[in-house]
Amino acid sequence: MPDHVHQSHPEITARLKRANGHLSKVIAMLEGQEPCVDIAQQLFAVEKAITNAKRILIHDHIDHCLSTEFNNGNSNTEDFKTITKYL
After folding, report:
1. Sorting pLDDT into bands at 50, 70 and 90, what band is 25?
2. Nearest Cα to Cα of residue 43 among 24, 62, 15, 58
3. Rounded distance, CA 76 to CA 40, Å?
4. Do 37 and 59 form a contact (C-beta atoms < 8 A)?
5. CA 65 to CA 6: how far, in whole Å?
6. Cα–Cα distance between 50 and 41 in angstroms, integer?
7. Are 50 and 19 spatial neighbours (Cβ–Cβ below 8 Å)?
8. Are 58 and 38 in contact (CB under 8 A)?
9. Which of 22, 33, 80, 81 has the highest CB neighbour count under 10 A?
10. DSSP structure string for 31-52
11. Whole-angstrom distance, CA of residue 39 vs CA of residue 9
12. What digits encode the pLDDT tens for the residues 61-70?
């Protein structure tokens, strides 16, 4: 069990559940031969929800994990470089 709590994880989970709902809708729309414009709109919603969830996760990691390490004199630039490649 991790020794730290990420307060952002419930929000991220909620965003990803919404993205999952949008993705299920996209699959149903494709199977139902719905208009491509409508499908593209739903795919955009999926993409946006995942992008926002990822952004929140990375910012949370930088704010809480890396800044704590830095403030404790444990500068971990490699971890910072690794997490920022996902932005």
Report:
1. very high
2. 24
3. 40
4. no
5. 9
6. 15
7. yes
8. no
9. 22
10. HTT--HHHHHHHHHHHHHHHHH
11. 29
12. 887 766 665 6
CA dihedral (31, 37, 38, 41) positive or negative: positive
Q: Which two tokens stand for residue 2?
A: 């991790």
Nearest 5°: the CA angle 40, 45, 10 is 155
CATH class for domain 9-84?
Answer: mainly alpha
Helix axes 9-31, 36-60, angle to 10 degrees: 160
Q: Distance between terminal CA atoms of the chain? A: 26
> What's the one-letter identity of residue 23?
L
pLDDT-derived band at 1, boundaries 50, 70, 90: very low
Q: Is 62 exposed, middle or buried (0-12, 13-18, 19+ CB in 10 A)?
A: middle
- The angle formed by the CA atoms of residues 62, 67 and 73, to the nearest 5 degrees, is 140
Q: Cα 65 to chain center, whole Å?
A: 17
